[in-house]
Amino acid sequence: YAMLLSLIFLIVLVAAVVGFVFRHEIKTNFESNLNLALKDYNVTADRHSEAVDTIQRTLHCCGVQNYSDWEKTEYFAQKGIPRSCCKSQDDCSEEDLKDASKAKMKVFVDGCFFLVTSTMESKMSVVAGMSFSIACFQVM
Asked: May I ask which residue range the UniProt record assigns to the signal sequence (predicted)?
């Protein structure tokens, strides 16, 4: 039993250290993967596209740095900015989404990268606190 608790303690400790040490690499990888997901975005049931839509709807954001990131994609040339960026689904027409200047008033203008990373960082203190509490409890 003591060996099992020691193993769990070490795993928690290593995970915390690795997460802290490699946090910048995690951000860089997330940003490059989000850019890649925007580039390859399509309407089909692609998991990456669904993830982008979910992030944009949930965090009320659009694009990586801002909504204009969509202008560099093939999807924008065909259909404009995705509907998941719309502030109100009822007030977003396809013509508005194809025109970046009109879309600015209808879509979320903030980028998702900053919102996702700031959300993760704010929750990391809770995760670190819980991990530390569990580790202390195991030591006792």
From this structure: 1-19
